[in-house]
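re: that chain from earlier
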Amino acid sequence: MSIQPGDSIPEAILQYIEDGVHKIDTLTLFGDKKMVLFAVPGAFTPTCSERHLPGFVEHYERFREKGINVACMAVNDPFVMQAWGESQHVPRGLRMLADGNGDFARALGLQMDASGYGMGTRSKRFALYAENGVVRAVWVEAPGEFRVSSAEHVLEQLSA
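^ sequence. v structure.
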C-alpha cells in the first residue's frame, strides 16, 4: 500500500551533491519543516525535463514564501541529478535528491516497473506535502499522465 495522509515519512537514505556527495536521512530531510517532495521517473526524460521540474523551478519562490522547502527525487545516481539540475537552472535550495536503488520509492509504496522501457525499477510520478515528517497530502499520477503532481496543482491545493 502506498503512503497516505497521516502516515509518517519512512526512513531511507538519499544522496545529493553539494561540494561533494552527501547522504541525508529522510527523517532529517522532512523533520521540523514543511516540505514538498516531487518525484519523477527519470532525470532527462521528456515530461520530467520539459514540464515537471521546470514548473517547480518557475514557482520555487512561491513555495518558499509559504515557508515550504522543495526537493526533487528520482531513481538515478547523485551525479545525474546534479547534472540535470544544472541543465535546468535549478535554484539553490531546491534539492535534487538521488534514490539510487529506489529504496525510498519502495518504502513509500510508489515504485513502478519501467523495465519495458529499459529503465528498471523507478519511482512513480508524484508529489507529496509533509509537515514535521508527517504526510499531509499525496498526489500520484496515473500512468502516462502529468496533472496532479505539477507545481501549479500542488500550489493550488496548498492554498485551498
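DSSP finds six helices and nine strands in the chain.
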